[in-house]
Design a protein that fits this description.
This protein is α/β, with parallel strands linked by helices. It is built from 8 helices and 5 strands; from the N terminus they run βαβαααβαβααβα. The chain has a 5-stranded parallel beta sheet, with helices on both faces. Helix 1 crosses helix 8. It is globular, with a radius of gyration of 15 Å. Bound molecules: shikimate-3-phosphate. The site of shikimate-3-phosphate (S3P) has 11 residues, from helix 1.
Amino acid sequence: MQKTDENVILIGFMGSGKSSVGKKLAGLLAVPCLDTDALIEEQEKMTIREIFAQRGQEYFRDAETRAVRGLTDRAGRYVLSAGGGLPLRAENREILKKLGTVIYLKASVQTLAERLARDTTRPLLQGEEPLEEKITRILSEREALYEEACSHVVLSDRKSVREVAQEIRRLIETL
Ligand code: S3P
């Protein structure tokens, strides 16, 4: 398969724009857009919040691994937006690399905090700790793994969803 025909996998922190950029990019490429969180919610018939509250984080992480394993025999090209914590497991990182070209959508703590300020859907961001501190702490635990999991980094600070999607399309056309 030509590199340019590969699936495009978007990884990155919560709020980095994976879902919105994924949808826009899928539109530009005229392929379906998949989202691991949506696949899991459909499979479990619960929201991510409910899964964390009722089953716990480990259960959710296992569901993520099942979701990406389930994609290994899927036919047809797609764009996949992966949940922010999915690349933490080595097995998941290996599977993502096999699934397609992995792009790390990177944004500054400030940008992430602005985008996530009013979010109530992400269990890991709830609680008393100030949002910027929480993002800084979790991101510092993850950054190296995001870098390891990807083949390319795309910066999303101060760019529109469309600009980022077009940048990724141009990037994959050069591969
Ligand atoms: C998580 C990111 C979320 C979702 C869950 C956990 C994480 O997905 O999977 O709340 O650990 O970073 P998004 O990155 O799409 O927000």
